[in-house]
Amino acid sequence: MSDNRLLPAAVFGGLLATGLIGAGALIGQGVVNARVGDRAVTVRGVAEREVKADLAVLPLKFTASGDVLSDVQASIDGDLAIVRRFLTSEGYPAEAVDLGQLSVADTLSREYASQTGGPRFILAQTVIVRTTDVDRVQKTTRALNELVRQGVVLQDFLGPTYVFTRLNTVRPAMIAEATAAARTGAEQFAKDSGAPLGPIRQATQGSFEILSRDEVDSESSSLNKKVRVVATISYRLR
Questions:
Q1: Over the stretch 202-229, which tens digit does the pLDDT of each residue have?
Q2: Residue 130 and residue 165: Cα distance in Å, rounded?
């Protein structure tokens, strides 16, 4: 009686085991297929281009000092007239020259009360040249000793700042170059792996960088610059 009961149980257990083994095989095959279908290669494409700045900003700051404020102001006004004549002789139109803020320091005021000796008043005036004629600014920078010869004391002169403003004009072509470079690298990876290259799965465009063309210069002081963009692209492998 007991043997008859054990027989169906054994048969059921065998069928269950067989079913689990089959299911396990299918699950394992499914994992393998999922991994194969998810194969991808991620590459980076770089595009670089040399450009020339198209905007220059040249600040000229000069100072005068003394114990009588009206005299110091007159000295600053005289220097301002000299600077304006100099810039006119250099070929700059009036609209390219802006007058910056006039700063006045009284060394006997509360802020400077601890200072002793020296002139009481120090005045500083800034004139700013802003122009797209970048070559002219470069020439003017080399001629600034003429102002010194005429008694104008330039302060904190760091040279002009050169700016490249036409990034949008080169952006589309550079993105295409970076994408093409990335695909070339991906095709080589696919060839080495023996799998055909599939479509783009994901793409990220890095930010554009504007650098000095020559490493000896800072970017802002460099007339000639280098624009760089890096595109990171993932391709599916079939």
A1: 999 888 999 999 887 899 999 999 999 9
A2: 13
List of residues 6+ apart from 125 with CB closer than 8 A: 61, 62, 63, 76, 79, 80, 99, 100, 102, 103
Q: Maximum Cα–Cα distance for the chain, whole Å?
A: 129
Nearest-angstrom CA–CA distance, 92 and 85? 10
SS3 per residue for 98-148: EECCCEEEECCCHHHCCCCCCCCEEEEEEEEEEECCHHHHHHHHHCCHHHH
CA distance 3 to 70: 125
pTM of this structure: 0.75
Give the list of residues 6+ apart from residue 72 with CB closer than 8 angstroms, or none. Answer: 64, 65, 66, 119, 121, 122, 123
Structure tokens belonging to residue 52? 């020339």
Element (H, E) at 77: helix 69-89
